Amino acid sequence: MSTQLIQQYHAKVERIIRYGGSRNESALRKPFQDLLEQYAASRDLLLVSEVEYRRRGVRVIPDGDTTGRLALREESKELSFGAVWDYYCLTRAVPVGMDFASSVRAYARTELAKRA
To answer: Contact, 75 vs 82, CB < 8 A?
Structure first.
């Protein structure tokens, strides 16, 4: 990757932080995507920015939050006995599959809000 592309990326990020006051992922996504697209184009590649898929009827878009990825990986480990475990969880009113990841995210948001 060229030094010039990286310097342009850093300049855009600094402008966003200076004028927008934000360092969060959504604010910095576009410049990073531009950098990756320029790099991919120089290698005759195509960048697919966001891919969504369905898992148990739930729309999943990978977004840098590894909670969902971790939940899917753990769920794949239990494929041999997963139906039995899901039934057990349902009978105990415990979230099943990706619903579990949603409850973890909600808990994390609540706890982080208390610390702010």
So the answer is: yes
